[in-house]
Amino acid sequence: MLKQFDFFLKDIIFVVGEVVIVSVLFLIVYAIFSVLFKKIDYIPFLKKYKEHSKMILKKIKIFLIYSYMIIFLSMMGYNGYLIYKKIGIYDNALHLVSKIPSKFWTELLIGSAKVVIISLAANYFIKIISKILVKIQDAAKAYKNISSNNEIIDNFFLRLITIIKNSIRCLVVIYVMNLMLFPEVFLSNMYILLKIYLIISGGILFTKAATAVVDSLEDLSKRYWYREDYVGWYNRLNNLLPLFRRCLEYVIYIWVTSLAMLQISFFERFVPFGTAIVQIIGIFFITRVIVELLKFFVDKYMVKSENQLLNKQRQTLVPITKSILQSVVYFIAFVLMLRALNINPLPILAGAGIFGLVIGMGAQSLINDIVAGIFILFESIFLVGDYIETGSARGIVESVLLRTTKIRDPNGQLHILRNGQIDGVENYSKGYTFAVVEVGVAYDSDLEHVFSVLSNLGKKVKEKNSSILEETVVQGIKEFGESEILIRTFTKVRPGHHFNVAYELRNLIKDEFEREGIEIPFARRVLIFKNQDEVKRDIEI
Questions:
Q1: What predicted TM-score, i.e. pTM, was given to this entire model?
Q2: pLDDT tens digit string along 10-44?
Q3: Considering all CA atoms of the chain, what is the largest pairwise distance in Å, rounded to the nearest integer?
Q4: DSSP label at 225?
Q5: Residue 474 contacts residue 449 (beta carbons within 8 Å)
Q6: Whole-angstrom Cα distance, residue 154 to residue 528?
């Protein structure tokens, strides 16, 4: 009787132990979830659940309670079955354990010890690496006192430390799976996932690093290379930095994608396309650099000249030269891009030539404009900066292109003319031009005194105004008007300055005539009232 009671007591203690162990395990799981949701702001993949964290935690709690009840009832049912069969619960557990070879427990103990040691070593290694990277981070931020990239550097090292931690932990998990004799397919897939994670994370990290390096180089260039000799180069190439960053990011993303696809046999066939796209991006960026350098050289060596006429000719040819060089470079780049895609460009170019011939036959006016533009440029009929008059447009030439000419008239309007439309040009900027000023004086004026005043005034103006080439010439009486004698003068001036000189002369003539008492007649209206009837008579004086 006492012996049966001992067996019964052992069974009760064993069942209670089972219940306690299962209960503790479920409490630990619930505690882990509670801590995770309290620290939800520090866990990136859980941030999106922040607003619903309480509701989710409540559902997890309900799920754990139901799971606990199912396991508890299953345990009780199994133990009740053993009692029904009059089988001791404790003895049955010992019997099941005895079937396990003793070598298993030895290997389990050794494996557990290995897992603990490796986990501790991995954690210690992570701490050492983190400290080293923090020191490197501080040194990078303190280098040359460059503070513009501190935020980028902090994000870079934070991401690097996170990648190292996750990679080491993943290796520990793979090692544990190997100890637990998981099938080889699971281990190989875990290695593939680890490689893909390292490739993607490393690509993103390298992108951040490249951005930080480019920004740092830009800051250093402003500090050390921004000299007078390099200002032109710096300003021209500095505009390409945003494009360089964007192209570099795309190249890194494509390389990362290609390396990740290499890890999966099904996607290996698409890797050559990634290489071709990288080549196209490189060709595009190099093309932009070459175009900017060519524009810089054209601006630097074609515009500056001491000869004013030669300088105007060069200013006229600069836009066309840039356009031609840019078109040639882009055409070569297009051919190289086709080569990168393993496409033969010859059939495409032949088809484009035939298509261009067909278009050209139907675009007679376009060809006429281009031919006329070529003759205007090479015969120097007019240049940028010339004052011309043609048809309904007159003003200063702002640009001469192969197809169109832009003229800014004195009122500010911009006239855009097709070169083929330009028929007959009056150019006021070839060699010299005359500033013609006509002034009216009264019939009773002393003409010799008037001529003398105008001549002396022309001498004074020439001394003050460098645009005047010769003194003002008084030609004499141009015509007899109804109330005035019209006197014509002209002054030889530099090209394009005739309007300004004429305005200046008129102002000075007005002031000088007032001082000399010379009358400039003007029309007057006289009203006469006679016998209360209004009679209007216009007397022109």
A1: 0.52
A2: 778 878 888 888 888 888 888 877 876 776 655 55
A3: 163
A4: I
A5: no
A6: 95
